[in-house]
Amino acid sequence: MSASWGYVAAGYVLTAMxxxxxxxxxxxxxxx
Amino acid sequence: MTTRPVRLLGAAAGVAGVATGVxxxxxxxxxxxxxxxxxxxxVHVPAAWVAYLAFTGVLIASIxxxxxxxxxxxxHARAAAELGVGLTAxxxxxxxxxxxxxxxxxxxxxxxxxxxxxxxxxxxGYLGVRGLTTDSHAGARRAAVxxxxxxxxxxxxxxxxxxxxxxHQPPTVLRxxxxxxxxxxAMLLALLVGVVAFTLAAAWVHLRRVAILxxxxxSERAPKMDGPVATEPLTVTARTTR
Lengths: 32, 242
Fold this sequence. Notes:
The structure holds two protein chains of two kinds.
Chain A: H1 4-25
Chain B: H1 4-27, H2 41-68, H3 71-103, H4 111-129, H5 136-150, H6 153-163, H7 185-221
């Protein structure tokens, strides 16, 4: 496995976290 | 309230997001030159494209507000700008993660990178302008003017790699003369599914944010029920006891 996988994994995890944050942020009162 | 179509949109975004991960990390082959680092393209490019799309939404909604003077357009502009700012920041960080193994540096003063940071800064300013007044229509009017003017940055960022060719690679798909002919079908599929996933997720977040902003605006207009209640003046009748 090449060293590049560390950067790739960090990028995909960061992307998932950003979308998770948007999902949380847009749910704070949307479901009231 | 979250409606059934919005929930379905969220579910579709989730499925497309998982598919992007599988296609980008497993199915697509490593790049002949860049190796596995190139897999970051399947999230970096969709983040940038959907940020452009969000800023196009700001432009359209800003024009809509100035023409109709209806605050619903302003709420769409604000929600779209919030998405565009976050996705631009994400695209910059993902580009940095991609640049380190391929270029050997996290950051360089290169036209695409600099114009992208200018784009991010301008739209952060746009969101800041919105907070300068408590008058909803005055704030919306100012924001709309800034939202229209700021859009000039979007084509500058996109064409920066064509106009000032330095380190960042030129567009692979959205480039003058059409897409690159040699792109591997599995790579193109992963990229397109990534764009679909980001677009669906952005639409889902956008609709939920507009619903929140609409509910907040309605509650501001509604009469306050928890304040002092006006009553008849108290009257005291003197009574004598015998």
